[in-house]
Design a protein that fits this description.
By secondary structure, this protein is an all-alpha fold. Helix content is 65%, strand content 3%. The protein is built from twelve helices and four strands. The strands form two sheets. A two-stranded antiparallel sheet has the order 1-2. The protein has a two-stranded antiparallel sheet with strand order 3-4. The longest helix has 33 residues. The two termini are 44 Å apart. The C terminus is likely disordered.
C-alpha cells in the first residue's frame, strides 16, 4: 500500500511540474505531460526518482527496505482445506466424517462388525468342522463351500435390490440375517436333532454317509444364505459410504473403516481361539453372533432423510 501511494504521488508531481510552465498550444508532448503516461521516461517510477522538494509520507517505506510480513500460524491452520483436500491426521478426519452422518456411522459399524466376525469365524472353522460336524477338515471344507455360492449370488442380486430398496435398509437387513444365520450355524447339531422329529425334516435322521449326517446337511443349507447376507452387507454398506461421503474424503473414510476392522478383530480372534479350547466352539460362535448383534443394535438411530450428495459422473 505504501509503494502504491508513493507511485501515485510521484506521477501527480511530474505532471504538475511539466504542465505548470507550458502556456502554448497543446502538442503531442504536452498531452503526455498532462497525464497520459506513454513516454518511456514517464514509466520510471520509484522512491529514488522523486523530486527533491517532494517528501515521502512518514508511513511510506521504500520497497527495497520493506521487510516481508512475518508468518503468523493460526490455530486452525492444520485443519483447514486447501484445494479440496483436508489437512491433518487421516484417521481423525475419517472418524469425524463417519460420525457426522448417522447413515454412514451405521454402515461403517456393520461393515466393521461383519468383517471382524468373518475373521474370527475363519480361525474357528477347522475346530468347528472336527468338533461340531464330526468330519475331517478337508471333507468339511467341501461341505461349507456353498457359502461361496451364496456370496456370488449375493453380489449378483444386490445390484437388482439396490434399485428398489434403500442402500442403508438393505445393509441393515443383510446384517440382521447374517447374525441370525450365524447363531443357527453354531447350534446346527442340536437343530438337526430337534427338526428330525418333524415329518418335513425327518430325512435329517436318515442321512448317514460315513461321518456325514443330518448336521452336515443342515450346515450346507444354512451356509449358503449366510454367504448371501455377507455379500448384501458388503455391497450395500460400501455403497452408502460412496454415496454420502464427499469424494475428497472417501479415501480417509475407507482407510479408517478398514483400520477399525483390523483393530476390532486383533484381540477377539485370540480370545476366541482360547475360549474355543476351553468351552467349545459352539458357545464361542454363539457369543460372537450375540456380541456383534448387540453392538449394531445399540448404535442404531433414526437416520436423517437428507439426500446423498450429488456428484458429477464426468
Amino acid at each position: 500500500v505504501g509503494q502504491h501511494r508513493a507511485d501515485r504521488l510521484h506521477r501527480e508531481v511530474v505532471v504538475e511540474r511539466r504542465c505548470g510552465d507550458d502556456d502554448g498550444p497543446p502538442s503531442g508532448d504536452a498531452e503526455r505531460q498532462r497525464g497520459v503516461v506513454g513516454h518511456p521516461e514517464d514509466l520510471r517510477f520509484g522512491p529514488a526518482e522523486l523530486p527533491e522538494q517532494v517528501e515521502m509520507p512518514p508511513d511510506v517505506t521504500p520497497a527495497a527496505h520493506r521487510r516481508p510480513p512475518a508468518h503468523v500460524e493460526h490455530p486452525q491452520e492444520h485443519s483447514t482445506q486447501h484445494g479440496g483436500r483436508p489437512e491433518g491426521r487421516w484417521w481423525l478426519t475419517g472418524w469425524r466424517q463417519i460420525r457426522s452422518d448417522p447413515a454412514v456411522t451405521q454402515a461403517a459399524i456393520e461393515l466393521t462388525l461383519i468383517s471382524t466376525a468373518l475373521i474370527i469365524i475363519s480361525g474357528l472353522i477347522p475346530k468347528y468342522i472336527e468338533d461340531v460336524l464330526g468330519l475331517p477338515v478337508d471333507v468339511g471344507a467341501i461341505v461349507l463351500s456353498p457359502a461361496a455360492v451364496g456370496i456370488i449370488l449375493g453380489l449378483r442380486i444386490a445390484n437388482f435390490l439396490s434399485h428398489r430398496v434403500p442402500h442403508a435398509v438393505l445393509s441393515t437387513t443383510g446384517f440382521i440375517g447374517f447374525v441370525i444365520l450365524l447363531a443357527l450355524v453354531a447350534f446346527v447339531r442340536e437343530e438337526a436333532s430337534f427338526l428330525g422329529g418333524y415329518g418335513a425334516f425327518a430325512f435329517l435322521n436318515d442321512v448317514s454317509v460315513g461321518q456325514f449326517d443330518g448336521a452336515g446337511v443342515l450346515a450346507i443349507i444354512l451356509v449358503m444364505p449366510l454367504g448371501f447376507s455377507y455379500a448384501l452387507v458388503s455391497v450395500a454398506g460400501s455403497t452408502v459410504l460412496n454415496d454420502r461421503v464427499p469424494l475428497h474424503l472417501q479415501g480417509r473414510v475407507l482407510s479408517t473403516q478398514a483400520a477399525l476392522s483390523a483393530l476390532a478383530s486383533s484381540l477377539p480372534v485370540l480370545a476366541a481361539g482360547a475360549l474355543g479350547d476351553l468351552i467349545g466352539v459352539t458357545p464361542v460362535m454363539a457369543i460372537v453372533a450375540g456380541v456383534i448383534g448387540a453392538i449394531a443394535a445399540l448404535n442404531m438411530r433414526p437416520r436423517a432423510d437428507s439426500p446423498a450428495p450429488i456428484r458429477s459422473t464426468l
